[in-house]
Amino acid sequence: MTAEAFVPVRRAGRIGAALRTNWGLLWSDPLGRTGVILLAFVIAAAILGPVLFPFDPKAVGESAKDILQPPSAQYPLGTDELGRQVLWEVIAGARTSLVVGLVATAISMIVGTFIGLTAGYSRGALGEGLMRVTDFFLVIPTLPLTIVLAAVIGQSLGVIILVIGLTSWPSTARIVRSSVLTLRERQFIQRIASLGARDRRIVGIHILPNVLPLVIANTILVIAGSILAEATLAFLGLGDPVNVSWGTMLHFAFQSGAAGRGAWWYIIPPGIGIVVTVLAFTLIGHSLDRILNPRLRSR
Amino acid sequence: MRIPRPGYLARKLLGVAATLFAVLTFNFLLFRILPGDPVRLLARAGNLSPEAIERLRQTFGLDQPLPVQYVIYLRNLATGELGTSLTYRRPVAAILAERMENTLILLAAATVIVVLLGVLFGVYAAARRGTRVDSGTVVSSLIFWSLPTFWVGLIFVFILGVYLPWFPISGMSTPGAHFRTPIDAFVDIGRHLVLPTLTLALVDIGQFILITRSSLIDVLTEDFILTAKAKGLSRRRVIWRHGVPNAMLPIVTATALYVSLIVGGTIQVETVFSYPGMGRLMYDAVLRRDYPVLEASFLLFAITVIFANLASDLLYRYLDPRVRDA
Amino acid sequence: MALLEVRDLTIRYRTTAGDIRAVDAASLHVDAGEAVGLAGESGCGKTTTALAIPGLLPQNASIVGGSILLDGRELIGRSEAEMERIRWREASVVFQGAMNALNPVQRVGQQIAEPIRLHEPETSARQAQVRVDELLERVGIPASRGREYPHEFSGGMRQRVMIAMALACRPRLIIADEPVTALDVMVQAQILRLLKELREQLGLAMILISHDLSVIAETCDRAVVMYAGRTAESGDVRAIFRTPAHPYTQALIRAFPNVRRERAFVAGIPGYPPDLTAPIEGCAFADRCSVALGRCRTEIPALRPVGAGHDAACHLAPEARSCDAARTPGAPGRLAPEGPLVRVEDLRVEFPVRGRARLPDGSKPVVHAVDGVSFDVRRGEVLALVGESGCGKTTIAKTMVRLIDPTSGRIEYRGSDITRARGGELRRLRERFQLVFQDPYESLDPRQTVHEIVEEPLLIHGRGRDAAERTRLVFAALEGAGLHPAAEIAARYPHHLSGGQRQRVAIAAAMVLEPELIVADEPVSMLDVSFRAEILSLMLELRAQRSFTYLFITHDLSLAWIIADRIAVVYLGRIVELGAADDVIQRPRHPYTRALVSVIPVPEPGAESDQIVLTGEAPSPSAVPAGCRFHPRCWLRRDLGDPEACSTVDPSLVPAADGRLVACHFPEGGTA
Question: How large is the ipTM?
Answer without folding.
Answer: 0.88
